[in-house]
Design a protein that fits this description.
single chain, 5-stranded antiparallel sheet, two-stranded antiparallel ribbon, 21 helices, 9 strands, 9% strand, globular
């Protein structure tokens, strides 16, 4: 019994022992820079998504998902409210970077980030998820003790010498490590349930999706190269957690670091999810904090000393990662909660078969069970929305949409009508009933109609076309073998513009 108590005491002491503060604040600076870029982009998207007259019907979203009302933004708010809010957010990133009243400005940023993803809930994606998660950790990690501009301006030499010796409570940092381990384990291992990842074609299909910057560049001739990276990702992601446990200076740890940085840099350069990838790459600072401090101290590593502390921040951190872990584990009982959104009417086959048919009926059974919802609800009340099944859905959602816009018989630029940002692409999928979360059946058609009507209204306002406008869509299932896969061309809508109001000849 005493041995057991002694072991538990040692584990707890190791969990709460102090850590060096400087690497945590170096990571804080990286988070602040990425956050600034993220809010600048969010500022630029106001008219299309957050604003009252954009592509999203926020009252309908609130009707479908009542829980998204928990936030500072109201459905009636116009674009000017969001320009102010995101302008404030951009300004708040600066003191976060400089180390001035970090917790206060992190709270403001967290509230705005959480309220924003809830405002635009149906087009939330990985960047949104990782950004607000990092702001949560800025609230509980011991940041702001070093790398403070004010201290550095007063006396550079003294400040630097002092910062290298500052230690802080380590419980929250180790909970953050737990979160990162969970992220890579779940994202990595879940890919092993995907037939496309296992046969080496998933990455090719991902690069052919509109989520890729260069989706028109890739073809079947690139398949051998992409298979190498496909299997490399499949092996690397579950191995990332090893970097938290390997000894300081381990050769294997540096090999994993090179692969880890390469994975995220290449992803940021090829996929339109830059902020999540850059932020995840920056976590290497914390994984290699001991190596960094050894270098800064001239090759000598000194174990941080001080009394083990847990405190309120440690308790909140531990509670969050326990809830998150239970949410992820409970998801194992619902391996296919994101089931194929469509099936073939004639054969009952999934659309990812090689057969083509324009007649489709609903075949989903999506959504989480009551056990999963209990854990996710607790996280939601904390402002956290996480789901680490990343790109394992590729087998069932390997679709792309292609558009043509014809005005008075002449071809026009379709990108003026259909927003080609990642949020725009996600929104387009709802037009074709490709959903990323459970849409209540009674609202599916209403959602589709609202997206098309708002798309037409936006086009009338911005393009001011003269004559009848026809919007055509080709719906394509991407063939992992590089073959053709388009469905028949469909006329989405036909309208003319009376000012900013579309008059429909063919209803959407």
């Amino acid at each position: 019994m005493q041995d057991k108590e002694g072991a538990m005491h040692r584990i707890w002491a190791a969990f709460t022992r102090p850590v060096d503060a400087l690497p945590i604040d170096l990571f804080r600076i990286c988070v602040g820079v990425v956050m600034l870029a993220y809010f600048i982009r969010t500022f630029m998207e106001v008219d299309d998504f957050s604003g009252l007259d954009g592509l999203l019907d926020h009252e309908l979203i609130l009707k479908m998902y009542w829980f998204t009302e928990i936030g500072i933004f109201r459905p009636w708010m116009g674009a000017e409210w969001f320009y102010v809010a995101f302008g404030i957010a951009c300004l708040c990133c600066i003191p976060l970077i400089l180390g001035y009243r970090v917790k206060l400005f992190a709270v403001i940023l967290y509230v705005i980030a959480v309220s924003t993803y809830r405002r635009n809930f149906i087009v939330m994606y990985v960047d949104d998820a990782i950004m607000h998660l990092l702001l949560f950790w800025m609230l509980v990690l011991p940041v702001g003790r070093t790398l403070v501009l004010g201290e550095w301006l007063k006396d550079r030499g003294a400040a630097w010498s002092k910062w290298k010796e500052v230690t802080v409570p380590g419980a929250a940092l180790r909970c953050f490590f737990w979160n990162l381990i969970l992220l890579y384990l779940v994202a990595g291992l879940w890919k092993w349930t995907s037939p496309m990842w296992l046969d080496g074609t998933a990455l090719y299909v991902v690069f052919k999706l509109p989520v890729s910057y260069f989706h028109e560049f890739w073809n079947a001739g690139h398949m051998p190269l992409l298979k190498v990276f496909n299997y490399g990702t499949l092996v690397l992601e579950p191995l990332v957690p090893l970097m938290f446990f390997l000894r300081r200076g381990s050769r294997l740890k540096y090999i994993l670091l090179a692969a880890f940085i390469g994975l995220h840099v290449l992803s940021a350069l090829t996929l339109n999810i830059p902020f999540a990838n850059i932020a995840c790459a920056a976590t290497a600072i914390l994984m290699f904090s001991r190596e960094i401090m050894t270098h800064l101290r001239g090759g000598k590593y000194v174990e941080p000393t001080g009394k083990p502390q847990f405190g309120f921040a440690g308790a909140i951190s531990l509670f969050m990662v326990v809830m998150l872990t239970l949410a992820m584990i409970s998801g194992i009982t619902m391996m296919n909660w994101r089931t194929p959104p469509r099936v073939l009417k004639s054969t009952g086959q999934s659309v990812n078969s090689t057969a083509k048919a324009p007649q489709l009926v609903d075949g989903r059974a999506d959504g989480l069970g009551s056990v999963q919802m209990s854990f996710y609800s607790v996280l939601w009340l904390m402002g956290i929305a996480q789901q680490y099944q990343l790109f394992n859905w590729i087998d069932d959602r390997n679709y792309a949409t292609h558009y043509r816009v014809v005005i008075a018989g002449k071809e026009a630029d379709s990108d003026q009508m259909f927003v080609r940002s990642l949020r725009g692409v996600l929104l387009d999928f709802y037009i074709h009933d490709i959903t990323w979360m459970r849409v209540p059946p009674e609202h599916r058609e209403e959602l589709r109609q609202s997206i098309l009507q708002r798309t037409a209204t936006r086009y009338c306002r911005l393009a001011k076309p003269v004559g009848v406008v026809e919007a055509h869509s080709s719906f394509e299932r991407i063939d992992p073998n590089g073959g053709p896969g388009e469905f028949d061309n469909v006329v989405l809508m036909k309208f003319s513009c009376q000012g900013e109001t579309p008059l429909f000849a063919v209803a959407p």
